[in-house]
From TrEMBL:
Protein name: Methyltransferase domain-containing protein
Any single Pfam family the record assigns to this protein: Methyltransf_11
Keywords: Methyltransferase, Transferase
Molecular functions per Gene Ontology: methyltransferase activity
SUPFAM superfamilies to which the protein is assigned, alphabetical: S-adenosyl-L-methionine-dependent methyltransferases
InterPro entries named in the record: Methyltransf_11, SAM-dependent_MTases_sf
Length: 252
């Protein structure tokens, strides 16, 4: 398995129009995001990347939403994703749509998100599955210079391992888009419905919802106990009659 971290420069797309069939991918992700947005609660939401910023989250109960990117026109803060200008435990939810594929250090990106995430916060992320028709198209030489094949695709179970190391619980996971986007939308939808059950593992896209689980640590203080020395107790059990006899004998 190749290491996730790389030193080569990866151009990150900041809009879905820069990705092949990006509008089709955005529609599929938007449908699943609309289902999960009402389940997210809190005060602050973080959207990392221009692809996350273009997905609407108006149905979400979190009103204050911040979009972080360098080139997206919908950004609110210009910053590096690996060095977020926020204090620890600032956000209740985070959207990470197709950002791990283009990250030079995906482990560092997840650790930085974990730093600004509150306990029991939600992390919603997506990406491309390399074991799919979309991933196999990346083997063609004329596709390697176009997104999404310019990035590195990771298997969903590998993403799950990274999340478990950070104490995240995967509460929902789905792999879909088995049939690539075609002009015949009706035929593609029918094939997707038929093949969704037996071939769900080879879907082109994955959608994961994870929740941060932090077990509170209770300090166990040492209990100091004084050891008592075992010594016989001298108890005066003499009766009044014995005292009288003792006095009489002493007088005589």
């Amino acid at each position: 398995m190749k290491p996730a971290r790389t030193v080569t420069h990866i151009e990150v797309p900041y809009t879905w129009s820069n990705v092949i069939n990006g509008e089709w991918v955005a529609e599929l992700l938007q449908a699943r995001l609309d289902e999960w947005c009402p389940k997210l609660f809190g005060y602050h939401m973080l959207k990392l990347g221009g692809l996350s910023a273009e997905l609407t989250s108006s149905h979400c109960n979190i009103q204050h939403q911040i979009c972080v990117d360098k080139f997206s026109p919908q950004r609110t803060i210009v910053a590096n994703a690996l060095e977020l200008p926020f204090i620890e435990k600032s956000f209740d939810a985070c959207l990470l749509m197709h950002q791990l594929d283009y990250a030079a250090d995906p482990h560092g990106l997840l650790r930085e998100i974990d730093r600004v995430m509150v306990d029991d916060g939600y992390l919603v992320l997506s990406g491309n599955n390399p074991l799919s028709l979309l991933g196999l198209r990346g083997l063609l030489p004329w596709n390697r210079r176009q997104a999404p094949w310019t990035g590195k695709m990771y298997l969903p179970f590998r993403i799950n391992d990274w999340l478990r190391l950070l104490n995240y619980e995967v509460v929902y996971q789905e792999t879909f888009a088995i049939v690539p986007a075609t002009r015949h939308l009706a035929c593609a939808a029918w094939l997707e419905h038929v093949l969704s059950e037996p071939l769900s593992a080879v879907g082109s896209l994955y959608f994961i919802v994870a929740r941060k689980r932090t077990c509170p640590l209770k300090l166990i203080k040492p209990t100091w106990k004084l050891r008592r020395q075992l010594a016989p107790l001298r108890i005066n059990c003499r009766t009044q009659a014995e005292k009288t006899c003792t006095k009489t004998s002493s007088r005589s």
